[in-house]
């Protein structure tokens, strides 16, 4: 279980802005210790200690933060949209697989962690959470900001806490493909890392959480990557880095601020995130491998059906099919 879960959780969505903010928070926190304002950092350390378990206990969402106007501008830039194909019953808890990862999982963050596309009005009564690498919650102030938009730690204990909540109404989303999928993300590709990712399936069975397949059309189109095909020296280095520290970095590029040839700004290409019909899951506290495999096969089939049913609407060629590895 632990090994499968770690594979599912090897990277969770972030954006360039989030990376920068992470560094700024760490630098300011340390810098204050060497000024007359050192007490601010000390007081925060006390708060940090008292609040240390919150990222593993469902986080601390803020409707105010999720409704910031900046998220509307983010949505309009690409643009990004959220499409519902079936209702989500607020009396149930759900575990959603988000596909594909893309370079920075832009659609996952915008649709599931903000009200930029109106999540709460599209799915009334559902509280959305998205998983992120646990080390991000060790950065001062940064941890409070990401929790406020619904990000929680990518540990199975954190997932269990949310999925076992009585009363239902919780949607926990996982970007299943992780860094391996991110390293293959480039415009026009539909390659998913899913065939051996079963930790989230086992978790759904253990807690009786219905599975929700989500496919984000255009997720791979907003950035290009430096050539890193399997067997290249760059891909070898990225794979070694991932094996060593569970993280790797796609060498991506897009457009510039005032020109369109090169830069780190994403291309203005539409992202449409389609939320599929829930797959009903019966609670099985100790699922067998056969039960996990059976549900995993059903999940992959439903995900493929979701892709095929909507691909022509979002400019995917008729002869293009998902490649699941």
From TrEMBL:
Keywords: Acyltransferase, Endoplasmic reticulum, Lipid biosynthesis, Lipid metabolism, Membrane, Transferase, Transmembrane, Transmembrane helix. The chain crosses the membrane at residues 20-50. It is found in: Endoplasmic reticulum membrane. CDD domains: LPLAT_MGAT-like (cd07987). The keyword Lipid metabolism applies. GO terms for biological process: diacylglycerol biosynthetic process; triglyceride biosynthetic process. One of its GO terms (cellular component) is endoplasmic reticulum membrane. It comes from the Eukaryota. Belongs to the diacylglycerol acyltransferase family. This is Acyltransferase. It comes from Muntiacus reevesi (Reeves' muntjac).
